[in-house]
Amino acid sequence: MTTNDITPDVEQGEAAAPRNADVLKEPVLELNDVSYAYSKGGKHVLEHISHRFVSGKAYAITGPSGAGKTTMLSLISGLANPTQGQVLYHGQDLAKLDRYRYRSHDIGVIFQSFNLLPALSAAENIMLSMDASGKRFDTPKRQRALELLSQVHLPEEYANERVLHLSGGEQQRVAIARAFSYDPQILVADEPTGNLDLATQSDIMDIFRSLAHDQGRCVIIVTHSPDVAQACDEVFALAPLRRTSQRGSAQRGTAQRKSAQRQPTQRRHDAISAVPRTGQRKAS
Fold this sequence. Notes:
The protein has helices at residues 20-24, 69-76, 99-106, 122-133, 141-151, 168-179, 198-213, 226-231, 244-274, and strands at 9-12, 29-37, 44-53, 58-62, 84-89, 92-93, 107-110, 186-190, 218-222, 234-237. By secondary structure, the protein is of the alpha/beta class. It has a single domain (3-237), classed as Rossmann fold (3-Layer(aba) Sandwich), CATH 3.40.50. The longest helix is centred in the C-terminal third of the chain and has 31 residues, at 244-274. The chain starts with 8 loop residues before the first strand and ends in a 10-residue tail after the last helix.
């Protein structure tokens, strides 16, 4: 049995609410016996993963490199389909839904590299995302962009600043505001605090917790940071599939078979070497 043949370890973070309350909630997102391989018949990156994600909570997905964190994020974001099992959004198979609508209405993605347009201002990046969603809003887009910047702790004077003039922490805040500008129910973030100082990291996590607890969103964060994971309500720990030991056993078995095949040849060589050649005297 591989490590991911069972549901990965789930821990409670500092901000966790009682888990028995989650059982009564309808999951906004659910992984149902999900496995994934990059090619047909290839080795699985994820195997038999099952988990429920509810609104109003912040989740951390952790694990070492190669455990499948980014792959899991791609499945949740609708960028890939599982090779086995289902990703369910409000009980419906994501593979059968309108994927463009899901990504432009229901889920917001915060990329590790921000993916902002550097020549545009902070407000313009946010408004462009609102335009792309096709949603209608009660307030003018410019006013909404200013409100969103305030929610990620950026003063109004940053609205007209070009992104290329902003620091990494400021760009991350703009990226978060852009991701929930069209009011998605799910927010996913890939290493959102990777290159930030501790004070900025703490402030970014306060923003994510507020988006979950105060606005009722489902927030899912992929992270290597124990501090970030501990600040979430629930930690979903992935482990890499145990292929090394299996491959090692196979290599040992192959080596043993080759050794067994060489032994008769070696014995024949030794026997031939022991026969004296013509004119050669045996050692006394």
